[in-house]
Amino acid sequence: MQKQMSDFAVGESGRILKVQGEGKVRHRLFDMGLTPGAEVYLRKKAPMGDPLEFTLRGYELSLRKDEAQYVVCEMLEEGKK
């Protein structure tokens, strides 16, 4: 099942399939390590749902929902984090 990172529930994991968007936004996401094949895990959400905090490549990354919507992931099963 595919899902945008902005739609993850706390505790869900996924593997990045593609990064959408154009220009500076897409380049910035790649620079932060959001590249196809990387695994991401949603650690927590702010009380109003924005920003989101992900674990990615051994570090924590906070993204706004409007940035996270550009990243499409394949969902991983619970035991495959």
How does this model look, in words?
By secondary structure, the chain is of the alpha+beta class. It has one domain: Ferrous iron transport protein A (FeoA) (SH3 type barrels). Helices cover 16% and strands 40% of the residues. It has 2 helices and 6 strands, in the order ββαβββαβ. The chain has helices at residues 23-31, 65-68; strands at 2-4, 13-19, 39-45, 52-56, 59-63, 71-75. The protein has a 6-stranded antiparallel beta sheet. Strand 4 and strand 5 form a beta hairpin.
- The CATH topology name reads SH3 type barrels
The major beta sheet can be summarized as:
6 strands, antiparallel
Class of secondary structure makeup? alpha+beta
**Can you give the mean pLDDT?**
90
Helix content: 10-25%
Form type: globular
As laid out across the biggest beta sheet, the strand order is: 1-6-2-3-4-5
Tell me the strand percentage band. 35-45%
> What's the CATH class label?
Mainly Beta
Q: Please name the fourth-level CATH homologous superfamily.
A: Ferrous iron transport protein A (FeoA)
Number of helices: 2
Q: Which segments are poorly predicted (pLDDT under 50) over 5 or more consecutive residues? A: none
Please count the beta strands (DSSP E, at least 2 residues each): 6
Task: Sketch the topology as an H/E string, one letter per element.
Answer: EEHEEEHE
CATH hierarchy: architecture: Roll
